[in-house]
From TrEMBL:
SUPFAM superfamilies: Nucleotide-binding domain. It comes from Panagrolaimus davidi. This is Amine oxidase domain-containing protein. One of its GO terms (molecular function) is UDP-galactopyranose mutase activity. InterPro entries: FAD/NAD-bd_sf. One of its GO terms (cellular component) is cytosol. Signal peptide: none annotated.
């Protein structure tokens, strides 16, 4: 549900676990672009290489000159002021033209809140800066090479994907290596009794409530739900969005310009997706890939947006047609799914709020980790969540401090 590629971010333990679990992995080179049609005043698609901020030399002349002047000013007058918001961070590093033409509309689509309401603490390996030497080398390239360039930036320039079974194959096969009775699928925890150290749960939507004891509870359900249920502190002021996944199956041949692309980004508010990916290029799972190909759209909305999955699905199909990625008559199947928790949003208040939760949970031997259990976007991909689990086990059993996940609490807390 979502792109879900895996790539090495310097976690050898994770890389080894994946390799030992999945026998047949495809290795792919990323080839992605950004649709900057709005900047060019066009309705259709106008691709520039990823990341968009590296494509300044390809921007329309006026925007290009503005960007260059704003960047020059930043290189010459370096400021020590620490940005408070993500908007401040972009303005400090790039200037208003790139902010207004790319970051603001794109971030609004993926995060569903304004850049001025987000903290910049997550940007680290997620948003490329543009050092002066890099900009100079880009400006020296000829346009033809530039249009085709992948700037090789970021940890996912190369990635892997299971040949069979989708990304779920990794986790299904990993679970199969472990004792079966460690897992209890299709069960829902309905309450946590932290005094008696037990949880109540139901199985298969059955009304009968069962109980299970614990010594240590590791929670990977959303931490806001855990706090609301246990009422161990006041509700958390944290924000998430939801993501609609829309999958479209199509008859071959694939649209020609998509044949070499792995995924595309869309800041354009006229289409509902912020990203689309061509999963039929990643693996062998597309049913009868001698006849069909597929495209998957990810569309983010505020958690309480009343739009329905059907409406988003229709908009996504129209958007794909508008962007010349598909034609209606080639569609053979449509799939959609709503993920009520899509992205844990890095708001300004987030770290204090999450620390407030850990401060009441950890003394009771409840540890909340993972994408929504830990709520730190910058550490919420599959590799991060896997390593969070390993490091927490190492901390609990071997007293080795966690390195990846920061609770915000003092390290030694007895
Ligand atoms: C749209 C999207 C795109 C993504 N793309 C990528 C990518 O390209 N690469 C990448 O590495 N990662 C990606 N991720 C992140 C990846 O999904 C997460 O890293 C991974 O799923 C996190 O695992 P987790 O165990 O923390 O949480 P989850 O996978 O969310 O697992 C938590 C589990 O808890 C269960 N649960 C919740 N409440 C209860 C309850 N009361 N009782 C019992 N169970 C409960 C949920 O059903 C869920 O199964 C993406 C995520 C999304 C949403």
């Amino acid at each position: 549900m979502g792109v879900h590629i895996t790539f090495s971010q310097n976690f050898p333990y994770y890389d080894k676990a994946i390799r030992e679990t999945v026998q047949e992995l495809n290795s792919l080179q990323r080839n992605c672009s950004v649709d900057m049609n709005c900047m060019f005043g066009e309705n259709g698609i106008h691709l520039v290489p990823y990341p968009a901020q590296f494509a300044v030399p390809l921007f329309p002349e006026k925007d290009k000159q503005n960007c260059l002047a704003e960047l020059k000013e930043r290189y010459e007058n370096k400021s020590d002021v620490r940005p408070v918001t993500f908007e401040d961070w972009v303005l400090k590093n790039f200037g208003p033209t790139i902010h207004d033409s790319f970051f603001k509309p794109y971030m609004r689509k993926i995060w569903t809140i304004e850049t001025s309401k987000m903290t910049p603490v997550w940007v680290g390996s997620r948003v490329a800066k543009l050092p002066q030497e890099k900009l100079e080398s880009l400006c020296a390239m000829n346009k033809e090479d530039l249009v085709k360039a992948d700037f090789g930036w970021g940890p996912n320039a190369y990635f892997t994907y299971p040949k069979y079974g989708g990304i779920g194959a990794v986790w299904r096969q990993m679970a199969e290596k472990l004792p079966e009775n460690w897992f209890k699928y299709n069960s829902k925890v309905v309450s946590v009794n932290y005094h008696s150290k037990s949880i109540n749960f139901i199985e298969n939507n059955n009304a009968i409530i069962k109980t299970m004891d614990y010594d240590i509870l590791i929670n990977t359900a959303p931490i806001d739900k855990l706090i609301n249920e246990t009422k161990l502190c006041l509700p958390l002021n944290i924000v998430h969005n939801k993501v609609f996944i829309v999958g479209v199956g199509l008859e071959l041949p694939m649209t020609e310009f998509c044949e070499t692309i792995t995924w595309l980004y869309f800041p354009d508010p006229a289409v509902p997706f912020y990203r689309i990916s061509f999963h039929s290029r990643y693996d062998e799972v597309t049913p009868d890939n001698t006849k069909y190909w597929s495209v998957m759209c990810e569309c983010a909305r505020e958690a309480d947006d009343p739009i329905t999955e059907e409406e988003i699905r229709d908009q996504a199909v129209e958007g794909l047609i508008l962007k010349s990625i598909i034609t209606r008559e080639k569609i053979v199947s449509l799939y959609s799914k709503t993920l009520n928790y899509g992205y844990p949003i890095p708001t300004i208040e987030r770290d204090n709020e999450i620390a407030r939760a850990h401060a009441v949970l950890e003394p009771l031997n409840i540890y909340s980790r993972g994408r929504f259990g830990g709520w730190k976007y910058e550490a919420s991909n599959q590799d991060h969540c896997f390593i969070q689990g390993k490091e927490l086990a190492d901390r609990l059993f071997l007293d080795i401090p966690e390195k990846l996940y920061k609770t915000g609490l003092p390290e030694k807390r007895g």
